[in-house]
């Protein structure tokens, strides 16, 4: 059985990786799929290409995981890929209420089943938006994200990290 794990992954977190790693043990193959939403163009920290690169680096150790992207309805992507299982991670009850509605809609319009995996308790408070916020102030997010995400965040906010550590950054860098 194969599953699709959709998300914006801006960036992928340790919670995402926890769910993905556990799913990779349960499914023959998992496709990590970055949703490309034209209405959110310019609202992501990382471009689609950057996110795909980060995901490939973060998942290189998982042989049955691949990375892809799509735009449009997830159920259309599922049909095109001939897959019927959507994987979603849950952190808290509030996630469940939101994800349950989407799961019912996906089953109704696309005959896709959703499998929920609870993120480990230690990651229940971590979200991509919180990680971006902390990194934007030069905070240490290395425990909350895989190495590829941490490196990308440090590069994206290099001036903030340099300033915080007392270094100067030349305008050319």
Automatic annotation (TrEMBL):
Its cofactor is Mg(2+). Substrate binds at residues 8, 40, 74, 88. SUPFAM superfamilies: Nucleotidylyl transferase. Pfam families: CTP_transf_like (PF01467). The keyword Nucleotidyltransferase applies. Gene3D superfamilies: HUPs. Pathway: Cofactor biosynthesis; coenzyme A biosynthesis; CoA from (R)-pantothenate: step 4/5. It is found in: Cytoplasm. Residues 4-133 form the Cytidyltransferase-like domain. InterPro entries: Cyt_trans-like (IPR004821), PPAT (IPR001980), Rossmann-like_a/b/a_fold (IPR014729). Keywords: ATP-binding, Coenzyme A biosynthesis, Cytoplasm, Magnesium, Nucleotide-binding, Nucleotidyltransferase, Transferase. GO terms for molecular function: pantetheine-phosphate adenylyltransferase activity. Reversibly transfers an adenylyl group from ATP to 4'-phosphopantetheine, yielding dephospho-CoA (dPCoA) and pyrophosphate. Homohexamer. NCBIfam families: coaD_prev_kdtB, cyt_tran_rel. This is Phosphopantetheine adenylyltransferase. It comes from Deinococcus taklimakanensis. The lineage of its organism: Bacteria, Thermotogati, Deinococcota, Deinococci, Deinococcales.
